[in-house]
Design goal:
Strand content: under 5%
CATH topology of one domain: AhpD-like
Largest sheet: 2 strands, antiparallel
CATH architecture of one domain: Up-down Bundle
Number of helices: 8
Helix content: 55-70%
Distance between the termini: 49 Å
Strand order of the largest sheet: 1-2
């Protein structure tokens, strides 16, 4: 019975976000217990107490871009659009264009980027987040960036990350830039 509902949920998720869930289906088939535990990460990935939506999705996108070359990034783009993040903000984040980001997106981006790259100024950016959204904001953005990295890495570890895909925002192709650490927007 659990398997039936899990398969139905995966199909709904796949249809809703145009995302290939084969690695999750495989996990469900081979180890339902692992799937059940892994599926709890989805709830954690949605956690947010204090950080604004643009900051939260900036952090999620940084995490996805760090570990993926397309499908998982596209999933986060689709979720960001569903959450109301403006296309121009998503594009600026994906292109690492600080001038195109609003203040919330820029701070979320800088925090996440500093953390994934272990930048020497990560404490300074963390303090900026603390000043804006408190300790809860730090937790929100930390969960967003790190949980955003788990999904593509599990997919890769299981051997299902074989496809790179051009990322689009509302059907417009975007060139995703993976670049050097930057601090100028924090």
């Amino acid at each position: 019975m659990l398997k039936f509902f899990a398969e139905r949920g995966l199909k709904d998720f796949s249809d809703r976000y145009d995302y290939d869930v084969s690695y999750m289906r495989h996990m469900l088939e081979i180890s339902p217990a692992a799937f059940l535990k892994f599926s709890k990460l989805t709830e954690l990935a949605q956690h947010c107490d204090a950080a604004p939506v643009d900051a939260l999705f900036a952090a999620k996108l940084v995490g996805a871009v760090t570990e993926d070359c397309g499908p998982c990034v596209q999933l986060v783009v689709n979720m960001a659009r569903e959450a109301g993040v403006e296309p121009a903000q998503i594009e600026a984040i994906l292109k690492r264009d600080h001038n195109g980001m609003n203040a919330d997106a820029a701070l979320g981006f800088c925090f996440a980027d500093a953390i994934v790259r272990r930048a020497p100024f990560e404490d300074e950016v963390r303090n900026d987040v603390r000043a804006s959204w408190g300790e809860a904001g730090i937790i929100d953005l930390t969960m967003a960036v790190q949980i955003g990295r788990v999904f593509p890495m599990v997919k890769a570890g299981m051997g299902f990350a074989k496809e790179c895909r051009r990322v689009t925002i509302d059907d417009t192709p975007i060139d995703v830039i993976k670049g050097e650490t930057v601090k100028d927007a924090a």
